[in-house]
Amino acid sequence: MTWVNMSPLVKTYTLEEFWELPEPPDHSKIELIAGVLYMTPPPEKPHGKVVSRINRLLSDHLTKTADQGTIYLPRHGISITPNTWLEPDLSYISAETEAQSTSRYHTTADLVVEAISPGSAIYDRNTKADTYAVLGVKELWLVDEFEGLIEVRVLRGDSYQSQVLEREDRLSSTVLAGLSFKVRDVFED
Q1: The pTM of the whole model exceeds 0.90
Q2: Which of 99, 101, 138, 180 has the fewest Cβ atoms nearer than 10 Å?
Q3: What value does the mean pLDDT of the chain take?
Q4: What is the CATH number of the domain that holds 97?
């Protein structure tokens, strides 16, 4: 991926300036990519349910397999200084990746999950997903909470190969060996 040159009129921020910004009054999420601020509206109830179900599926798998990796939920971010901060809806960082981490913040993840809602779809599928590829995130799940689809992107070289799965399809992770479930399990109680 190549970074797009921005207009000189676009204000860019360092990570230090980003930390000084006030919390938006509507609690929108603010992220920083290559110095540019991106704001998405606060998630609605379907978003939270989808993320909770995936958290449960992953937690059960980690417990069953005695995997020593960690699942992180929002406000835990991935950062590359001096000017990028992303907050995935959910991320998994293996014990091996964790052991290699020497910075104050995580700089990558093994698996990232983004629940796609109408207010964030273009950003999540393009700008944010491209940034995850640059950061070396091995597997990305784009979960479309309204269409009931999961797009699984697996990093090959420096770009993602993508597969869209429907409710009756089975998702099998390349990062978490043995993790496999029906897509509908993410969308149904």
Answers
A1: yes
A2: 99
A3: 92
A4: 3.90.1570.10
